[in-house]
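To whoever is on call:

I kicked off a structure prediction for a single chain this morning and the downstream step that reads the tokens threw a length-mismatch warning. I double-checked the sequence; it's 123 residues and nothing unusual in it as far as I can see. Pasting both halves so you can look.
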Amino acid sequence: MRFLADVGVSPRTVEFLTQSGHDAVHARTLSLHRAADRGIIEHARADSRIVVTFDLDFGDILALGVMDKPSVIIFRLSDERPASVNQRLSPVLDEQSEALEVGALILVEDSRYRVRRLPIRPG
């Protein structure tokens, strides 16, 4: 899979993804560190990448229900250190690769994760 890590995500998580066999890039590497969230979404969509972020605003953008891509993984963890993020990310990638490929919003919490298929429909 192809990933775009938002600015709040550690480069060590990008390394983890790369070492796990994925194509991962950090927003800073692409000079997107000052881009608005919509700019990150559009870049990820155009480059067929999954956004990895701590920013809930990405969920708000997808909740408008008009986009079926890109997939977004949002972390809501009490421990945001890379080792903890990577540990929580690993089962999501193993168990939800199909959902991520077709379009999903995944909220990763300390003890669980929730998956919403895109586009998100009201009601």
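Update from on-call: the warning came from a stale cache, not from the record. Cleared it. Sanity check on the structure: The longest strand covers residues 104-109.
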